[in-house]
Specification:
- The chain is α/β, with parallel strands linked by helices and about 375 residues long.
- The protein has a nine-stranded mixed sheet, sandwiched between helices.
- The chain has one domain: 3-Layer(aba) Sandwich (Rossmann fold), CATH 3.40.50.
- Helices cover about 45% and strands about 15% of the residues.
- It starts with a strand and ends with a helix.
Length: about 375
């Protein structure tokens, strides 16, 4: 069953958020901005704005205007999704899948850009992962990227489509890969803005790797050295983490905002995307109480949540220079039928930071499919 879902957070929940922000007990801090985590002066300013100026209703309206729906799956789990339909007939569905600590809000800017600039009619579907946003929270173990791929395929079939294209980054990249692997007849192409690929086990791993690609490989080393602690915690004890983050809005903001600073390599105590956009994402986690359930995906997936089986569909890799993982093209060719490989400026949250570049890359790839 598919039904419209009007997003409307009760006013008392908004009032409670502001009250809890005002009750924050702040820790001490070493005088070395961002080196040990979220900078306190930045977080105090952000929290003050969140409490006194931020208007959740603006962001709620944006989601509803795109088209907000919920699908009750065959298992009974409800999946929330955005569904932006083309004004033209016979549109091809493009399934865009987010990751953590993102949400469907990552796609608000890019959806109209893609649909405006593409000569091919596209219906864009953005599911909220189980345990994220307004989707149901799984109550049993086992909801990993592979199982989410099955749910999203089920959703697309329930919407009446026969073929589709998948697109994703972060966990969305693993889910998109599983959809392509499991549903070769229905999934006709895969576009990724974070490509997961490992060096071949037999040959010299650096054979045919360019000098520029070698530089990009350093991103992952830096990530492992300086920003991987959250991964290990969420992969092992997400429930323990959840008690604090589900109760303290400032704690939640600190946990999420640091990713939007560190993964973009922000400078001068600023995030690369606007504070407003980041607070909209943090607010969605807060109001839906989904930080604990979303973190559990790391435990479900373990190290990768990924299959290294090669898939047959045409694939495009949009590599953003400051992303966490930026493998060489020759590594990706071990897994994918690479028909497009472009390097762009930008970081991990490409749809937010570089919507024009990412949309152009997606449209270029879809044209290659000759639908």
């Amino acid at each position: 069953m598919i039904e419209e879902y009007n997003i409307h957070i009760p006013e008392e929940d908004i009032d409670l958020l502001k009250h809890k922000i005002s009750l924050t007990r702040w820790p001490d801090e070493i005088n070395n901005k961002w080196s040990h985590g979220t900078d306190m002066s930045f977080l105090k300013e952000l929290s003050n704005y969140w409490c006194n100026e931020f208007d959740w209703r603006v962001h709620e309206k944006k989601l509803n205007e795109i088209g907000s729906f919920r699908y009750t799956s065959e298992s009974g789990l409800k999946i929330h999704f955005l569904h932006s339909k083309s004004k033209k007939n016979n549109a091809i569905p493009l399934v865009m899948t987010h990751g953590w600590p993102g949400s469907i809000q990552e796609f608000i800017k890019i959806i109209p850009i893609i649909q405006k600039n593409s000569n091919i009619p596209l219906d864009i579907i953005c599911p909220s992962l189980p345990g994220f946003g307004f989707s149901d929270k799984p109550s049993e173990v086992g909801m990993n990227s592979k199982e989410i791929a099955k749910l999203q395929h089920e959703l697309i079939m329930a919407l009446g489509y026969k073929k589709y294209i998948v697109q994703g980054g972060d966990w969305g990249a693993t889910i998109s890969k599983w959809m392509a692997e499991l549903y070769e007849d229905e999934c006709i192409g895969i576009h990724l803005n974070m490509v997961i690929a490992w060096p071949p086990a037999t040959d010299d791993p650096m054979k045919n790797v360019t000098e520029n690609e070698q530089k990009l490989l350093a991103n992952y080393d830096k990530y492992k050295e300086q920003g991987f602690g959250y991964y290990e915690i969420q992969k092992t004890k997400p429930q323990t983490l959840g008690y604090g983050l589900n109760d303290s809005p400032v704690g939640l903001a600190a946990w999420i905002v640091e990713k939007f600073y560190g993964w973009f390599e922000g400078e001068n105590n600023k995030l690369v995307v606007s504070n407003e956009e980041v607070l909209a994402i943090v607010s969605l986690y807060w109001f839906t109480q989904s930080i604990t359930s979303s973190a559990r995906l790391y435990k479900e997936n373990g190290d990768l949540g990924f299959s290294f089986e090669k898939i047959a569909q045409p694939m495009a890799g949009a590599i953003f220079k400051r992303d966490l993982i930026a493998p060489p093209k020759v590594w990706a060719e071990q897994i994918y039928d690479v028909v497009q490989w472009n390097i762009h400026d930008g970081g991990h949250f490409a749809a937010l930071e570089q919507p024009e570049s990412l949309s152009t890359d997606i449209i270029e790839f879809i044209k290659k499919l000759k639908i």
